[in-house]
Amino acid sequence: MDDEVTDSDSVQPEDSAPRARRGGPRSVKRSLASIVLGFETIVVFLAALVTYGLSSIPPFVALGGGALLVLALVALIGLLRYSWSYPVGWALQAIVIATGFITPAMFFVGALFAAMWAYCMINGTRIDNQKEPS
């Protein structure tokens, strides 16, 4: 009687149920910040290659510094669940702007990303506050 279904076959253990996401719904501020940091990571990586190609500083400094900045940006994406990560994001924006002293085009690029970061922080917070139940 292999075709019979026993009670033990139809009962699923409680652990097999899908788990709810911890921390509730993701905030708009966090989503926007992760998008900006993701694109900024790509641009900083490419800027490190440009700096290396221009030979304005030693290759180890250009590629090593670029790699450290890229790793910091990627790590920050994962840390956005903590409130202290947003001031760290502002500090990274300042560092990206400061890379303009090595590659002058980064003053402009860094300012654009800092402006996008500011927009995301201001409007993301505003939208999150509007979504909260009163």
From TrEMBL:
Residues 1-25 are annotated as: Disordered. Keywords: Membrane, Transmembrane, Transmembrane helix. The keyword Membrane applies. InterPro entries: DUF4233. Pfam families: DUF4233. The chain crosses the membrane at residues 31-54, 60-82, 94-119. The keyword Transmembrane helix applies. This is Allophanate hydrolase. It comes from Cryobacterium roopkundense.
